[in-house]
């Protein structure tokens, strides 16, 4: 893009001015003559700002009420001429090729032509450095391709290449770093807990006494005691059976005794019966044969009940003989039982304590194995984090080299190293080892022009460059775009155009 012509009316300290641009345009004049205002008129016509991108009130201080400011900029974009205009009385109005346009239409055309920040950075050597460092960084690096993973890996050791090559195929670097930082953090916590458990178990084991007995002999003794206890339990069961059998016989004897006593009463009652020799109904004496039959009946019943009584007596005698024949139930030795149970308890406690000791030893072994596993996992994740630090550092180094290769006299600081060894993005232009803020005005102009040249090459966009305060620098390399050079001289405002790049 080149400027052909700039028309100014009632803009700052210019009532009316026509600037016809050449391949090089030199502007000279005293302080306050309006040199800088020519640059501001260009950016105001386009964006309503000064060359630093700040909002601008274009009206002259002594302007009368109702005075209209007008700026028209005739540019050639590639092979096409475009006339852009902006006026302002109370509100701004916009023109493209003298056709009134809405603000949105005007701005859309500018956006299609070039990015605002890029234009201001190419037009004013100082503008780029007024942006926040993050905006500076983003603007420059958008044109520089980041080194490929394989390019970075090729610069690392074989060990780091092996660690990172496959994981970087599955995850991007940021996600991979988040993953392993979290693993390393959690791994450290888990390892510390595992180490504490090992210490606790070791302390418990140190306080546990080694068994002073043969566990196999102990088990045999326990088995013997169980056998003795079982034998006693069996004896006790037999004794209980005997007692139950005796009780059953005694119950039967008691029952038979009651039956015998009852039978005696029945026999005695029959024996005491009187023979009635007269009829109970009519009172007439019974015949001899009838009396005989009554006596025979009584005798028959008497004999029957006596026989029954004898049978009961025989049964009770047999039961008594059986009861007498039964052996006396042996008494259970409770003292011996208690001794056996006490000894069993003591031996079982010893076995249990031995088992706890072995269990403690096994727990300690497993805890140590777990601790070692977690240590390895923690170290592996930390190694990956360290590998990614190296990767980022090397990538940054290659990126800085790429950026530095674009410049000749200035260097760009893209990263700073923190106390923990990690990198943090930053951005600062340096010349001769000094930051931009510390260099002279002449050096700032040179740095700005070099930066403009890099931005033009990388973006493939060339615009005019307005070099203000050029009296501060004797010689400089002309930018690729159309130079507009403003110098302080003790003359009235003077504008000259030349066809050769003679800037001194």
If you had to describe this structure to a student in words, what would you say it looks like?
The protein has 504 residues and is an alpha+beta fold. 55% of the residues lie in helices and 16% in strands. It is built from 11 helices and 13 strands. Strands 2-1-4-5-6-7 form a 6-stranded antiparallel β-sheet, with helices on one face. A 4-stranded mixed β-sheet has the order 11-12-3-13, covered by helices on one side. Strands 8-9-10 form a 3-stranded antiparallel β-sheet. α3 packs across α11, α7 packs antiparallel against α10 and α8 runs antiparallel to α9. The radius of gyration is 61 Å and the shape is rod-shaped. The C terminus is likely disordered.
Structural class, judged by helices and strands? alpha+beta
Largest sheet: 6 strands, antiparallel
| First and last CA, distance | 24 Å
Strand order of the largest sheet: 2-1-4-5-6-7
Tell me the number of helical segments per DSSP (H or I, 4 or more residues long): 11
Question: N-to-C SSE series?
Answer: EEEHEEEEHHHHHHHHHEEEHEEE
User: What's the total count of β strands?
Assistant: 13
General shape: rod-shaped
Radius of gyration, in angstroms, nearest whole number: 61 Å
The low-confidence parts are 500-504
Share of β-strand residues = 15-25%
Helical residues, percent: 55-70%
Mean pLDDT: 88
